[in-house]
Amino acid sequence: MTVPLDKLKWMHEMMAKSRYYEDQMAEVYLEGKTPVFNIGAGTVPGEMHLATGQEPAAVICAHLTKDDTVTSPHRPHHHAIAKGVDLNRMTAEIFGKETGLSKGKGGHMHLFDPNVKFSCSGIVGAGIPQAAGAALAAKMKGQDWVAVAFLGEGAANSGAFHETLNMAALWKLPLILVVEDNAYGISVPKTASTAIESNDQRAAAYGIEGVIVKDNDPIEMYKVSEAAVKRARNGEGPTIIEIETFRYQGHFQGDPELYREKGEVSSLRERDPILRVRKLMIDEYGVDESEVEEIETKVKAEVDAAYSFARESELPKPEAALADMFN
């Protein structure tokens, strides 16, 4: 199957926007913080978990609509961007500003945009049962809506993963679990925490479909997720998709990454998925390089505007925050 050019352009735009967004956040997050574990409120409060390198996982959103639900864990920015979350309000939320999605109360790990049915739980595995609830609602309402839960490979060892899959398989819910295997659960390698090679193998225990996408391949992710979404809409039940993806950054900003092997990230960057899609567009689809550069310039302008919006927005007034809590 050949990916339609308009979808390929969308993939490139989404991944380029996500990458630039994370690269900018990596710098902004350090503002006003001490160098040891980034202690201090600074411009952006709280912890920060970036998804640089994991952009292909969000390619499944090419097959989703506003009526489909997406839940995300603590590394959510690429998912939110792909699902169409308002970039200005998302950035303001991360900055803790009044103009944020939740008026600055949720922050980076608790993004919520009901306009596109996107939520971020922040807690490992917590978004899985939430997505199943949305899938159950779709089935009860007789709608062809799909629910997608993103999770790290470590969350596949949690009770929420298995309990949810058992019910979703039993009821044939339109649920898709996208497991982002970035090789580490915080600092623990997957080989030291998980008894099987890949989590798609767990699908057999529940009588559902399970597929794996190797080498962080966005084109294969497009194909696999298209089939999974079609199965879900047709009432054929859940799917587990595990994508072998790569985290270029530490678990959190300030992570000393002592668990990394020397040269590991440099080796991963040689197979960068954004460069692969870019090359494919030019070499095989005949897209002029100037058009590709135009897309990249556009997304950078959108991201820069979002950061400016967040910086210029006001912090919530304490009395307003208290009033919201009791109203």
Molecular structure report:
The protein is α/β, with parallel strands linked by helices and 327 residues long. The chain has a single domain, classed as 3-Layer(aba) Sandwich (Rossmann fold). It contains ten helices and nine strands. A seven-stranded mixed sheet has the order 2-3-1-4-5-9-8, sandwiched between helices. Strands 6-7 form a two-stranded antiparallel ribbon. Strand 6 (184-185) and strand 7 form a beta hairpin.
Total domains? 1
Largest sheet: 7 strands, mixed
Counting DSSP H or I runs of 4 or more residues, the number of helices is: 10
- Tell me the name of the CATH class: Alpha Beta
What's the name of the CATH homologous superfamily? Thiamin diphosphate (ThDP)-binding fold, Pyr/PP domains
User: Which sequence of strands runs across the widest sheet?
Assistant: 2-3-1-4-5-9-8
Tell me what portion of residues adopts beta-strand conformation: 5-15%
Distance N to C terminus: 53 Å
The value of Rg in angstroms is 19 Å
Which fold does the CATH topology refer to? Rossmann fold
Could you say which overall geometry the principal axes of the C-alpha atoms support?
Answer: globular
Mean pLDDT: 94
State the share of residues found in helices, binned by percent. Answer: 40-55%
Show unreliable segments: none
Helix/sheet category: alpha/beta
- Series of secondary-structure elements, N-terminal to C-terminal: HEHHEEHEHEEEEHEHHHH
Oligomer: single chain
Report the CATH architecture.
3-Layer(aba) Sandwich
Based on DSSP secondary structure assignment, what is the total number of beta strands? 9
Domain Dehydrogenase E1 component: 46-318
GO molecular function: pyruvate dehydrogenase (acetyl-transferring) activity
InterPro entries: DH_E1, PDH_E1_Alpha_Subunit, THDP-binding
Keywords: Oxidoreductase, Thiamine pyrophosphate
